[in-house]
Every structure is written in C-alpha cells, then in structure tokens.
Amino acid sequence: MTDSPRHPALPVTFRPTRTRAVLLTAGAAVFVVLTVISLMLQLGGGERASFIFMAALCLGVLMLLSRPRVTADEDGVTVVNLTTKRHLEWAQVLAVRLRPGDPWVSLDLADGTNLPAMGIQPGIAKQQALADARALRALVDLKGTPQDSSNGASHDAPEDAGQDPGN
Q1: Where would I find the H helices in 41-165?
Q2: Are 119 and 79 in contact (CB under 8 A)?
Q3: Residue 70: what pLDDT?
Q4: Cα 142 to chain center, whole Å?
C-alpha cells in the first residue's frame, strides 16, 4: 500500500494531542503547587500527607481524562476510552461518524451497536479531529469488508466527518 494523506501508514494512533497536553500540564502543575504548599505550611504529617494525596488524586484524574486513543493496525482498530479498551476487527466496523456537535467520533459496528471513540474529538483541535476522522474512515473503507450498498452504512460516512462540528 502506498502512503497517502487519505490512507495513513499502519499502525497509526489518533488521540486529542492538544487536549492531552493541556490536561497533563494542568495535572503536573496542580501536583507541584499542592505539594509545595504542603511543604511550606506548618502542617503535621497527616495533614501534609492529605495535601499530597489530593495532589496525586487530581493528577490521576487528569491522566485518566487524557487516556483516550484510537489505534489502527493491520488486525483492526483498538479503541481506548476513559476506563475501557476494546479491539475490533476491521470487518466489525461499518462506519465512522463525526456529526456537527458530536463530542467525539462514533463507530457503527456490525452487531448493530455504536461505540464511542473518544480518541478523536473536536474539542480544542477541530480541524485535526476532522482529518483524523477522515483518515480512520478511509482505513475502514480500505480494510473493512465491503458492505451491501442497500444498507448505506459505509456510504453515509464520508459526508458526516466532512462537516464542521461547530455549526
């Protein structure tokens, strides 16, 4: 397969990098500030430990929020959301959708369900999310099982991600 902007080389990982950078930076800053405050104040051991525990808890929550990603490889797609991880074979993914106003991509699956893919979200970087959704859609079209044209699942998808989610 030749690499083109439409079909990225595999394996490829999609994640909200700007959002992730903001979350991890804020988490580290909160941890440092609360730890420094606990060391500067005249506190007992238990109170100081409480400050540091709260700092670690805040950092942990922000790290959890920065976890989502979507990884595509030759075998299929792995979707990592906040607390779950699911691997899908290419044939299981029928369509990739990112409609205006959606907080993240949704994958239409062969079993009739939808799976949120929080690793592609238009929050801070709308244009990057649209490009990532198009790239994932192109991979699904390339690697997935050809669908019957009467169901329309894979044929509806190209128009969905091309729209501006902010309108």
Answers
A1: 45-65, 126-143, 153-161
A2: yes
A3: 97
A4: 21
pLDDT at residue 152, rounded to an integer: 39
Residue 109, phi then psi, degrees to nearest 5: -105, 160
**Residue-averaged pLDDT of the chain:** 85
34 has a pLDDT exceeding 90: yes
Is 65 buried (19+), middle (13-18) or exposed (0-12) by CB count in 10 A?
middle
Q: What is the pLDDT of residues 66-81, one digit of tens each?
A: 999 999 999 999 999 9
Token pair belonging to 77: 């797609």
Average pLDDT over residues 59-67: 96
Position of tokens 């949704």?
Answer: 106
Tokens of 37: 């405050």
Which amino acid, one-letter code, is at 120? Answer: I
> What whole-number distance in Å separates Cα of residue 38 and Cα of residue 32?
10
Q: Cα–Cα distance between 10 and 14 in angstroms, integer?
A: 12
116-134: pLDDT as tens digits: 999 999 988 899 999 999 9
Nearest to 28 by CA among 66, 49, 55, 50: 55
User: Which residues neighbour 9 within 8 Å (Cβ) at sequence distance 6 or greater?
Assistant: 1, 3
Residues 6+ apart with CB under 8 A from 2: none
